[in-house]
Amino acid sequence: MIQPEMINPAMRSKLLRPASSFEEAEALSRQLSLLNRAQLARLIALATPETEASLRAAAGWLREHYYGRKVYLRGLIEFSNVCRKDCFYCGIRRSNRNVRRYRLTEAQILACCRQGYELGYRTFVLQSGEDPAFTPLRLAWLVAEIRRRYPDVALTLSVGELAAADYRLLRQAGADRYLLRHETADAAHFASLHPAGQTLQQRQTCLRELGAAGFQVGAGFMVGTPGQTADCLAQDLLFLKELQPQMIGIGPFIPQQDTPLGQDQPGHLRQTLLLLSLLRLLFPKALLPATTAVGTLHPLGRELALGAGANVLMPNLSPQEYRIDYALYDNKICTGDEAAECRVCLQKRVESAGYTIDTGRGDPVDWEETGS
Ligand code: SF4
């Protein structure tokens, strides 16, 4: 069982009893931010249900203070499952011959946006594999066209590693946000999950260039990948502290049967929730999604993730006939629902968990103030 004084004597009482005010939660947040790599690893490795409850309670106070009970909805459009990369964990990796590949046309993508706009969404997330057919210029045209048609939406891209000049082009075309998970900040662990030629250094360079281009940046990692240790996760937290992204997406590793990691065990819900609470405490103003992966791992996974500190959901706006083909992992949920059904289902889930839906742009709390 974890002995809180093993981590930091000043944290002892705070980890033994749930915070009962925002001020107490903020004090715990400050102390957690002083922990070094070994202390963070020990906290992650040895956390007991009592420690997790304390962290969850404090995360709740911070989330409530900065974002209230709001859960932001982002309409997700998975517009191509073609990818030139070969990540060992990913169901749409280049080498997987069992995937039915698809690419939406610009007209189909714009139709998804129209439907999303009519459903009230004011954030669209355009996500794909690294598809060479969608060149930066083609993407820039698409971004500019969506921006022209819907000037009041926030536009997020998630299309992988590009050159710094391409990121600047897309930002100038009107994209606001960019999601690029680093997956793990441990270089050796990264190398065990990716083929030669894909490096952590390159991924981290891209993330820094996205920030320099003016994007709201989303990084993130998987929890429970084969060979991952508490020390790897501690490195993730420290890398994020250095990067200071506006969004952090984490989800449990879930194997996909046609990949090299297809026979490995999935990550654990409990550890994913612990990490979400730690992220809320270390990054009180971050936007943290309750991911589809956590909902795949457990029927109430997304509700539990909201309780642990998450405040974003990403309902799917992709055409129903293609959803099943964007199978990054096995048994992915929400592949059969129409966009409107997704919207209703999520609203019910959010409200039954005691939160309220917000379909607005959902910028980070201090984004408008600082403009940076
Ligand atoms: S994780 Fe992303 S980059 Fe890697 S194979 Fe899958 S879609 Fe491609």
Q: Can you tell me the number of structural domains?
A: 2
| Name of the level-1 CATH class of the largest domain | Alpha Beta
Order of helical and strand elements: HHHHHEEHEHEHEHHEHEHHHEHHEH
**Percent helix range:** 40-55%
Can you describe what's shown?
The chain is of the alpha/beta class and 372 residues long. The chain folds into 2 domains: 61 residues, no CATH class; 291 residues, Alpha-Beta Barrel (TIM Barrel), CATH 3.20.20. It is 46% helix and 12% strand. The chain is built from 17 helices and 9 strands. It has a 6-stranded parallel beta sheet. The longest helix has 19 residues. Bound molecules: iron/sulfur cluster.
Layout of strands and helices, then pairs:
Layout: H1 4-7, H2 12-16, H3 22-32, H4 37-46, H5 49-67, E1 70-73, E2 75-80, H6 106-118, E3 123-128, H7 136-149, E4 154-158, H8 164-173, E5 177-179, H9 187-193, H10 200-212, E6 216-223, H11 230-243, E7 247-252, H12 269-282, H13 292-297, H14 301-308, E8 312-313, H15 320-323, H16 339-352, E9 356-358, H17 367-370
Helix pairs in contact: 3-5, 4-11, 5-12, 7-8, 12-14
The structure holds iron/sulfur cluster.
Iron/sulfur cluster binds next to loops.
